[in-house]
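Dear U.,

For the methods section draft, I wanted the exact inputs and outputs in one place so we can describe them consistently. I've listed the two proteins in the order they'll appear in the manuscript figures. Please don't edit the token lines directly; just add comments below if something needs changing.

First protein:
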Amino acid sequence: MPTEMIRRDEREDSANKDTLFMLGGVALLVVGAGLVLTSPIAKKYMGQLGLGNLTGGIVPDIERYFKLRSM
């Protein structure tokens, strides 16, 4: 019986560690993207791509998708 409890605790610890590593990776990704996008060079290139126009064209498609999905 004690060995079963130890094994269960090890599995729970493993799941907790996996979740912690995943959230840590996401946090590092967000921080890295923020650092890159604060660079003046990156801002210049993003402005040249015209991402504002792209997002304006995508919004109606997303709205239609959610309307169809709710039916």
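Second protein (the one for the lower panel):
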Amino acid sequence: MKRIKAILPWSGGEAFEYIEVREHWAERLGGDGRFLPDRVGIYGDAGVPASSVEEFVDEASRFFLREMAVRSARVRRMAGTGHFEPHELEELLTAQRHRQSWAIYFTENGGLPMPDSPDGRRGVIPCSSMRNHGVGWLRGGERIETWLLTARKPGEEWDMDSDVGHESAHAAFAPVPLFVEPGVMENVPFSLADVRDLKELRPEHLVRLLYFYSELAVVAIRGESRPTHTRLPIGDPEEVFGLVAISEELFPDSGFAQAKRACERANAHFDLEESDAIFDLATPVLRLLPRLNVFVNAVAPPTVEDLKDAVKLAAA
């Protein structure tokens, strides 16, 4: 693993970059890096000892041995539900690894600094619930590039499950769109439970819809249960039903009718380990994500027509 001087693209600050990290992890996985993101970089501030980064890389190597065994088992179980053609699910999970780079950022005391960008060329959008996670971006002409940014919580050690397992899954097959503003995810007035017709959809509703898609994909493949009534990242059962109803109308014949029946049977309470209901809910999401990932680097959410057109064009 080499260390070189670098400029952080999302802030313009100076740092050290540790390269060939993905290759190291793939080698430790016996050469099987199919569920890892294509582009992984580790960045460290000048005051961060190289030994700290090396210890993290070794610990993450051991974690990935367990993590990938779980993902492989979940993929086999999900593929066995009959929802997918042979090898279809694995292709859905491995064909999008290029969409978003994963940047693991070592700051001296943890946390994810919010850079100033007077020229509006770069910046960071923090996660609404995990402020040490976010999306970094850099504008070059008409083109925008994004990074899924991961730091440890201030004053705490790295959380392998959250900082490595969850984040690596996002970067590998369910990238987080740039347009996901924290305020939209925190505000109840934009709940999908309140939408009765597609004409009522506001941009904020579409932000929640697409962000929840990425979260549902990750928790389904990882078997990642949350401390909510639903056991999902969507804590309100009514919003789960709202998401399914909106999705069925937006994307007819995509599988959301079966997802709706699964939600009704489970009463929107999902046991991610014992029940296959989460697979019914996540199947249409996983099929849609490759088509919707074209919006990952967009600064504003797509319109309803944009979404429909993206799915139609991809299916043509």
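Candidate sentences for the figure legend, describing the second protein: The mean pLDDT is 94. Residues 50-79 form the longest helix (30 residues).

Thanks,
Y.
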